[in-house]
Amino acid sequence: MLLSGYSRLSVPCQRFRVTYRLYGDQKEAYTKAKDICLEQTVEFPEEFIPEGLIKEQIIGQIESFESYAENSFLVVISYAIDSAASELTQLLNVVFGNISLKPGIRVEHLELPDALLQNFKGPRFGRAGLRKLLEVEKRPLLFTALKPMGLTSQELAKLAYKFALGGIDIIKDDHGLSNQPFSPYEERTSLCAEAVNKANQETGQHSIYVANITAPVHEVMKRALTAKAVGAGGVLISPGLTGLDMLREIAEDDRVALPVISHPAFLGSYVMGMSGISHHALFGQIVRLAGAEGTIYPNFGGRFSFSRAECESIARGTVIPMGNLKPIFPCPAGGMSLASVPESIKVYGNDVAFLIGGGLFKQGPDLIENSRYFRALVTKLSE
Amino acid sequence: MLLSGYSRLSVPCQRFRVTYRLYGDQKEAYTKAKDICLEQTVEFPEEFIPEGLIKEQIIGQIESFESYAENSFLVVISYAIDSAASELTQLLNVVFGNISLKPGIRVEHLELPDALLQNFKGPRFGRAGLRKLLEVEKRPLLFTALKPMGLTSQELAKLAYKFALGGIDIIKDDHGLSNQPFSPYEERTSLCAEAVNKANQETGQHSIYVANITAPVHEVMKRALTAKAVGAGGVLISPGLTGLDMLREIAEDDRVALPVISHPAFLGSYVMGMSGISHHALFGQIVRLAGAEGTIYPNFGGRFSFSRAECESIARGTVIPMGNLKPIFPCPAGGMSLASVPESIKVYGNDVAFLIGGGLFKQGPDLIENSRYFRALVTKLSE
Q1: Of A6, A259, A267, B264, whose CB count within 10 A is highest?
Q2: Contact A242 B241 (CB under 8 A)
Q3: What CATH number does the domain containing B110 carry?
Q4: pTM > 0.95
């Protein structure tokens, strides 16, 4: 025998479960399910795997297999939590690493036991904590973005000031504002934080400026600490660009200790086809597991392609029970207009942050008035 | 006017070019192209963008638009290099951030001017440097993986020793070996590096052990430096899990100064549908830009779904002129067998690293002999 086949897995290990949607007829789908059990763990020909604990525990196990729709099946596969090594990177690797390269496999849902979840702090504030920070008791949160790219830091700060005067709760950098020569990071964040904090003093409100810290590896933490130092009230990160674990790293850091908002840039490919990860699992569960307080995604009816049902499934992922993980805010965005708020509030209820960027400019020539209108509209609809 | 419309972009900025494939009829495709120009830069309603440099430079510009196949068009869009902020994260954001969330858009090819490329060191060794390190002058490189997950560090080291004795050039951790209790990182890498180095002393060959450093953010650099300290000859990273910029960070670090190999886990969704990034651009150009010396991807005819043409396009991406970036090794893998080597060598020529994992076990009961057979086969075919 090639392998001696003992291992240190001497006691049965707890398991986590992944629901996959598999495309094909029943035989093809079942073959895919068996293949996933090997591909995501031992990645090795079954005939060479020694009897014993690797076979009994490490290889994925099909827990259930059922028909879902024509030519598609739902299968639940469980894996030993030890295979995930208490790491978000390795957890995602077991869930979908190699099979991301195979057609017709979609991660639908994650079920993670406490023994695994205890390795993650998850959201620091959660819905209740963020509401307290912003002093918004009941209504949906008002969220906007500073843009367009190409404005100077001074111009962006003027916009931030107006939005805050008008009562927008969360005023973030556009996700494309990084450290460009026209609005360098430190200058921009200093001026924007100062502008929002000045407006707060005038209004008595508690708006926050959220700085985009999406950046090269060695810069992200520096920018988060700079954001904190200059008085920003939160940070924005695009985990598709930095890696999902960078979101976790920042969210869990006690020196930063600011709300972290997740932006979906560069993540879209995971949800665009029959293969990939469901909207629910990616923008709901995984982003929450990584510790975001809010998850931005394109709302239905905007300039992107997410359906109403997909958006609802994300919202469910932000709040369904996941051990110690606090519920977070869905942040529908992407061409949302003020006109779309009434319909959206019916879908999301009050526990939502409406992110309206360009749409706030369209309401009229005065940004402060436009912001007040947004606030009044949402307040009225949420009563 | 809402925006004052001046900016610091006082001189014309050099531009980089992205070729997109857009699906739809001509009118739809052209509308998509116009939309991309805004979405990837200002993300703002065009009517509110002030005249001047933002409009003239920041917004993407359609450089060409041509029919490609029925209902699909190739468009070249250029962007100001300043918008990419000299950062890999922001470059990828401009290339494909938000539009990853829109259907029917695929990044086909990148054309980056020297003014942008000079921000990236790229591969440290390149094909010539890696050949020198391994003392392999002409033939394809022989590459294998230590698995299955669940073996102890001692067992994995025994495998490594046999592979090295048999003359495999690059012996890597399976990409699922992280820091699990059955083979903790430091123990495993110490034993495997020692085993390979011992075999080298016996054979006079120059095999390297490549440690998998895919890990949470705060661990990756530590593991890279540990790999170096224990005598590993290279490191493996899955940029889909860590973020592509982590690959760059490690590749550019002079303390590590080891060959970095890229693994495609969790990246598959980008190439699986009509939307996303081409095999060529992602596994060829982008991974090379980030500094990998080798790019692993599933070979045609194996247990994955890449076509021969897609694999050829990746190989082209590893070698086409890209300013100062050295050419790197395509590393076809994913169910490659010894039987597939002759056909593959016709496709790739000699500048390739054949990654055969499980397939090496299938040849016969003696791993050393199997490895020697692999080496003899490749040597003969490459003459």
Answers
A1: B264
A2: no
A3: 3.30.70.150
A4: yes
